[in-house]
Amino acid sequence: MVWEASDWSGGCIRKNLQDCSTDGFVKYTGVKLPDTQHSWYDMRISLHECGRVCLQNCSCSAYANADTRSGGSGCILWFSDLIDFVGYKEHGQDIYVRMPASEIGEWDGRRSRGQRHIWIPGVLAWKCYNEDRLVELIDELILESSKQMEVFRVILIGLLCVQEDPIDRPVMSEVVQMLSSNTTLPHPKKPGFFIERRLHETEHLLSNPNFSSGNQMTVTSIVPRE
């Protein structure tokens, strides 16, 4: 009853609780690797060994090559939610995401039917906005309540905050004002989910020995776990 009353303070429970002994991995290709704040890496081990190490640790959520040059080398493991995980049109990398066996079976079934679509929440919101289908993003219980327009407004503000050009993005004080008022919002422009660099810029980054982010959107220094 508390959920029907829009009281979500108790949080939510994963649909399929992970049983570490039956977990597996689903390969996502052409992506920007997630934030590496809660990660661990070892340049000495292979990708196969990397997967074995991840599978043995129930806290490990994903793994990938730490360096994609020359066919790939090294290992990087994630031990938290995968944050800032987006798709690329070009120069993306491969990542293996941990899933329960039951979800892997559902994934394989969709893939065999040619339904292999990977939707990143922000990308889906932008697609629905352009096609005037934002209502599809909202839970039915909210649609039946008086908060529908409030949710629409929050989605639009979110799209304004991820516009491709930083100059177009509102600053925090403007976001607060948008959330606390009923002023008309500007139409969001194309988001920056697929920022691509010219090839020579990419090669320059990859040739830099201090470059450790593994993607062309941000440069993040990988810090090993203590």
Automatic annotation (TrEMBL):
Pfam families: DUF3403, PAN_2. CDD domains: PAN_AP_plant (cd01098). InterPro entries: Pan_app, S-locus_recpt_kinase_C. Keywords: Phosphoprotein, Receptor. PROSITE patterns: PAN. One of its GO terms (molecular function) is protein serine/threonine kinase activity. Residues 20-101 form the Apple domain. This is Apple domain-containing protein.
